[in-house]
Specification:
Layout: H1 9-19, H2 24-31, H3 35-49, E1 54-55, E2 62-63, H4 65-93, E3 97-104, H5 105-111, H6 114-119, E4 123-131, H7 133-141, E5 147-150, E6 161-169, E7 171-175, H8 186-193, E8 198-201, H9 206-217, E9 225-228, H10 231-239, E10 245-247, H11 249-253, E11 262-266, E12 272-279, H12 285-310, E13 318-320
Parallel strand pairs: 3-4, 3-5, 8-9
Antiparallel strand pairs: 1-2, 5-12, 6-12, 6-13, 7-10, 7-11
Helix pairs in contact: 1-3, 1-4, 2-3
Length: 326
């Protein structure tokens, strides 16, 4: 015998009305259906769940454990279902959409909550998730978010479109005294760094892949490595002369409170990290472009002026892609 794979809203509504006082006759009268129809719907639910939702051995009948679980969870579900149509109609009238957005840690630190505040102007319901770039990229692939701000272009992932947002240069980040002598050459700097531990992120991060490629390309000899999981922890260690690392400006900015004891300089090779606004569904193309433009304006009007005030040297290593066609 084929058993239904899930509950339908009609049966759930009948169950919830009956469960108010465990009275099938009253539920039938309230809903304008026959009592046999009520009994049939409840029986269908019990068949699907494989257990009783009412204890019929008591008088009056009572909810079983399964019945109480269905009552607790089903009430919220039905409430959301009943609000679905009015909510969609309301959104269409005011031309606002529901948006699930994901931001990598650096983007979230730089743009939130200003980006959320701006997005509320053209969204009805807004959800924002923060995580590493691999986490955010995976969420977009699995349709758990609609738009992502991350440093993985997701080339090769079916249907994903990437709008360029900004490009930043990877930098050596070192204890301040490393650059204390006038105009040190790269050879002198490399020699000093070779005696300090190299700080890196875990392999589960996108920054690990990028920075490790640079580190290997510079042919450093491994002395000691320290693995951390946040930009702030990394900057704190560097400020205490516990090591050095390879980071782009927005990651450095996350540890700005350590700026008095930290210095940075550019490689003698080209190495960059690019950020994108990504989307998978064509229905979000215009929203993604709007998010890109809003983000660029926020960088120009809020983030860059703040960086210019507190750590201006970082700015020349960040380049907005504001000349890209939508």
């Amino acid at each position: 015998m084929t058993v239904d794979s899930g509950l339908d809203i009609g049966c759930l509504r009948i169950f919830l009305e009956t469960a108010k006082d465990c009275n099938m006759s009253r539920a039938a009268q309230t809903l304008g259906v026959s009592q046999p129809a009520v009994s049939a719907s409840i029986k269908k639910i019990e068949t699907i769940l494989g257990t009783s939702v009412f204890d019929r051995n008591t008088r009056p009948i009572q909810l079983t454990t399964a019945g109480r679980m269905l009552w607790n969870r089903g009430s919220y579900l039905l409430e959301q279902f009943d609000c679905l149509t009015p909510s969609i109609k309301s959104s269409l009238v005011c031309h606002k959409v529901d948006l699930r957005m994901g931001c990598s840690d650096c983007m979230s630190f730089a743009l939130s909550p200003s980006l959320m505040n701006a997005a509320l102007e053209f969204t009805k319901n807004l959800s924002v998730k923060t995580g590493s770039t691999p986490t955010i990229s995976q969420m977009l692939s699995c349709n758990q978010i609609d738009i992502a701000l991350a440093s993985d272009s997701m080339i090769g992932v079916e249907n994903v479109q990437a709008l360029p947002l900004l490009t930043e240069e990877f930098l050596f980040v070192v204890p301040k005294d490393i650059l204390a002598c006038p105009s040190p050459c790269y050879k002198e700097i490399y020699e000093k760094l070779s005696h300090l531990p190299y700080l890196r992120f875990g392999k589960e991060t996108f920054d690990f892949v990028q920075s490790e490629r640079i580190y290997r390309g510079l042919h450093f000899k491994d002395v000691q490595r320290i693995e951390v999981d946040t930009n702030k922890a990394m900057m704190s260690l560097i400020s205490n002369r516990r090591g050095w690392c390879i980071l782009p400006p927005l990651s450095i900015w996350m540890g700005k409170e350590f700026s008095s004891n930290v210095s940075f300089f550019k490689f003698n090779v080209e190495a960059t990290r690019r950020y994108f606004v990504l989307y998978q569904s064509h229905g979000y193309a215009s929203i993604a472009e709007r998010i890109r433009k809003v983000s660029i304006e926020l960088f120009k009007k809020e983030i860059f002026p703040q960086i210019a005030k507190e750590w201006p040297e970082l700015l020349k290593h960040i380049h907005l892609n504001d000349d890209c066609a939508s």
